[in-house]
Each structure stands twice: as structure tokens, then as C-alpha cells.
Amino acid sequence: MKNQGDQRELNEAITSEAIKAFFRKDLFAGFVGIELIEAGDGRARARLEIRDHHLNGLGLVHGGAVFTLADLAFAAAANSRGRTAVAIHCSISYLKAATGGLLFAEAEEVSCGPKIAAYTIRITDASGELISRFEGMAYRKKESWNL
């Protein structure tokens, strides 16, 4: 059973703007070109406009670019409750090749306990077609991250 402090923490509202400002510090995601659209309450949505440098030798979107997009959405969702959360396990399934345009990652919290939280992230193209599915598990530290 959760104590009152844990329950109060889960109910605290952190604005989407505060989360987006925090994740602007993620220099790698910024370098790749990922934009965090919204985040809060164990959810997040991010996008990536595909450029030539995101393509592999076959002319398809590089799996690393897709993973990085999903990973940022996962991190934003996992940290959206104000406590520092770090990945302890991630897996991705590539279901369809992407060739360009916009890709979106939408993270949804599946479970959130005092120490462990789990997320599913769907990566879709601009038409909404499923490109990849990412599963992530995060360890929730006791301390809060600094806004």
C-alpha cells in the first residue's frame, strides 16, 4: 500500500512546459532533431522530421533514429511525475520501414510503483501507421529532478 507521501507525489501536477524545458537539456535528442510536443501524467508525445542524415545505407530511416525518438518520449513520460527516473530495460520492435516525413512517438504509462514504472511507446508515421513499438522500464529514484 502506498503511503500518503507517495500518493501526494503521484497527484502533483507538473506542467508540460516545465517538462519540455527540462528535456531541452537533452543535447543528443536536440542534435538529432527531436521535439518534445507534450508531457505530463505519465504520458509524452515527441516528433522527428526525417532529414537525409537520418537515413541508413538503404535509404530507410535508421533504427537508431527511431530508437532515440522513442527513448526521449519514454524518458519524458517516466520523469513527468517529478521524480528522477532512469531506464533499466528497453526493447524495440521494428514493424515497418520508414522512409521520410514525420515520425511521432507516443508514450503511455502502463504501471507506476514506488520504485519501478513501465511504459509502452508507439512510433507512427504522419498517417498514423505503426512503425515501431518500444517497451521501457524505469527505476524511480527518491530524489526529484531540478526544474
What attributes does this structure have?
disordered N terminus; globular; six-stranded antiparallel beta sheet; 147 residues; alpha+beta
Question: What's the topology here?
Answer:
Layout: H1 4-11, H2 16-23, H3 27-32, E1 34-40, E2 43-49, H4 63-79, E3 83-94, E4 102-112, E5 116-125, E6 130-144
Antiparallel strand pairs: 1-2, 2-4, 3-6, 4-5, 5-6
Shape: globular
Count of DSSP strands: 6
Helix content: 25-40%
Question: How many angstroms does the end-to-end distance come to?
Answer: 29 Å
Structural class of the helix and strand makeup? Answer: alpha+beta
User: What is the beta-strand fraction?
Assistant: 35-45%
Spell out the helices and strands N to C. HHHEEHEEEE
The main sheet comes to: 6 strands, antiparallel
Taking pLDDT < 50 over at least 5 consecutive residues as the criterion, the unreliable ranges are 1-11
Overall mean pLDDT stands at: 90
* Rg estimate, integer Å: 15 Å
Number of helices: 4
Q: How would you name the oligomeric state of the polypeptide chains in this document? A: single chain
Strand order of the largest sheet: 1-2-4-5-6-3
What does this 3D model show about the protein?
With 147 residues, the protein is α+β, with helices and mostly antiparallel strands. It is 27% helix and 42% strand. It has a six-stranded antiparallel beta sheet. A hairpin with a 4-residue loop joins strand 5 (116-125) and strand 6 (130-144). The longest helix is centred in the middle third of the chain and has 17 residues, at 63-79. The protein is globular. The two termini are 29 Å apart. Mean pLDDT is 90; it is low at 1-11.
